Amino acid sequence: MDGFTISVLTNIALFSFLAISAWILLIAGEISFGQQAYFAIGAYAAGIATAVWQWPFVAGIAFGTGFGAAVGALVAWPTIRLSGLHFAIATLAFAELVRASLNVFSYQRDIDGYATGPDGANGFRDIRWVYEAGIEPGAYLVIVAGCLAAVIALVALMARGRGMARLRIVGEDPILAAMQGLSVARTKIAAAGLAGGVAGMGGALYAHLATYIEPAQFSVMTGVHALAYGLIGGLGTVLGPILGVLIDIGLLESLRVFSGYRMIVFGGLVALVLILRPRGLLDERNVHRISAWLRR
Amino acid sequence: MLTLQSLSKHFGGVRAVDDISLTIKEGEIFGLIGPNGSGKSTTINLITGLYAPTTGTVTLDGYDLTAMAQHERTAMGVARTFQNIRLFGNLTVAQNLWVAQNGHEQRRAHFLPRWFKAGGEHGPDIEELLKFSRLHSKRDVQASALSFGEMRRLEMARALASNPRVLLLDEPAAGASQEDGQLLAERIRDVRDRGVTVLLIEHMMELVMGISDSIGVLNFGRKIAEGSPAEIQANQDVRAAYLGSKHKDEDLIHA
């Protein structure tokens, strides 16, 4: 594989974390414009862990994931009782709050004669663990893809068991769900924690690939894209948001056919899919159909 | 067994339910009738906890349900169907049932590991319910793809899956044909024979008169009569409420 292909594939995998994160909340009936905040939180937490505290890589990624999950659940606790639009706006506000806070957040330590750590708007340099360990881009792609596969496996396991149905239930009809004895708030908080963890893991992996991160990278547009991926890819399966990423980054961005018109084409595509298939290309009906066909 | 004591629900100045007292005996089919807007659905919503009453209490076997949340009442054995069918359309038929069956597990300690466990839907209860509801061939079909009649049957099966002691049916014959009404009557008797007390809200007079052991009549949020089907048919107030006082006897019987 050449360097371009590897970087495109790595990008697809990293965006998939964010897309799955937004998708999990969509399943639970909540629209979040703010999952990029957990991506940022994961990136900063993991970067601090490996670069400033000199933790090993795996511990850093785990820390970024856990931190994202904890903040996700914590933020959901007061906001999840807001419904629909109000929750969506709260996520937007929180994401901007995180970005603005990172702009003034400074935490540096002297490592080998260099001040290392986040330095507000100047960003966070030298997250060099992967670089210093001599891990090639191809090998790093395998690591990222492996983590993504683990996330997909976890969600698939939930889909086989009761977890996913729980999320779908509270997403579809909270009143009926409450009557059945499901705690709507608790289920949604769990979903938000899971979504935060998935985004945090993506951010942690991203930080170690980029080696440099700054608050401006985690803008609202990133979050809007993440949401759109699930909406066009489909809400029926966890592969839906990944399909969305593949369409956007794999086709529209990387093939360069549409060059300057990419955003126009993508925006049009989102509008078209939302009109024709309100729950995305791989919606529940299609997934049922495909899985019935596969079983034959 | 299920007792409503001076139950009222006011929406602003509107007295949707006004000082209703009813007692539904164990093992009976109790029909609750009344013209549109007489407070029947509000009464069901008060019993299931969708609304909090303005005054009055709801008790089941002496346990006061009035302050309980909806899911606690479900756990106590109160289940319902909805006038406008309510199902999880994106889940399969079987999943809709085991959701109800496993609904009360949130209080159990091992809450999270269950997220990853398959099963539950393979319990004998679910299979039996699917057979009972003649939905066995549809178990893996998405609920939103069912026909109207199948959705109604699934809704009743869903209510039964929570193992209720009393089942509240909110206009189960709405949109059904005459023949469907006959089948529905048998089905409701079958439910009663399973040991479930039934509170039936219905417009189809023939159905209510045919299968109810006792009947309560509401008008403008107040109870105007209570008694056996024969007593209700003979009651002047009921005739006045339903048909206007000038109509003849046969109209009510044949309505």
UniProtKB/TrEMBL annotation, chain A:
GO terms for MF: branched-chain amino acid transmembrane transporter activity
A GO CC annotation given for this chain: plasma membrane
Source organism, top-level taxon: Bacteria
TM helices/strands, residue ranges: 6-26, 38-55, 61-80, 138-159, 189-207, 227-247, 259-276
Bilayer topology: Multi-pass membrane protein
Disulfide bond in keyword set: no
UniProt xrefs under InterPro entries: ABC_transp_permease, LivM-like
Keyword Oxidoreductase: no
Protein name as it appears in the record: Branched-chain amino acid transport system permease protein
Organism: Jannaschia seohaensis
TrEMBL record, chain B:
GO cellular component assignments: plasma membrane
Molecular function via GO: ATP binding; ATP hydrolysis activity; L-isoleucine transmembrane transporter activity; L-phenylalanine transmembrane transporter activity; L-valine transmembrane transporter activity
Key words, A-Z: ATP-binding, Nucleotide-binding, Transport
UniProt xrefs under PROSITE patterns: ABC_TRANSPORTER_1, ABC_TRANSPORTER_2
Pfam family, one: BCA_ABC_TP_C
GO biological process, alphabetically ordered: D-alanine transmembrane transport; L-alanine transport; L-isoleucine import across plasma membrane; L-valine import across plasma membrane
Keyword Nucleotide-binding: yes
Top-level taxon of origin: Bacteria
InterPro entries to which the protein is assigned, alphabetical: AAA+_ATPase, ABC_AA/LPS_Transport, ABC_transporter-like_ATP-bd, ABC_transporter-like_CS, BCA_ABC_TP_C, P-loop_NTPase
Record-annotated ABC transporter domain positions: 2-245
Entry keyword ATP-binding: yes
UniProt protein name: Branched-chain amino acid transport system ATP-binding protein
Organism: Jannaschia seohaensis
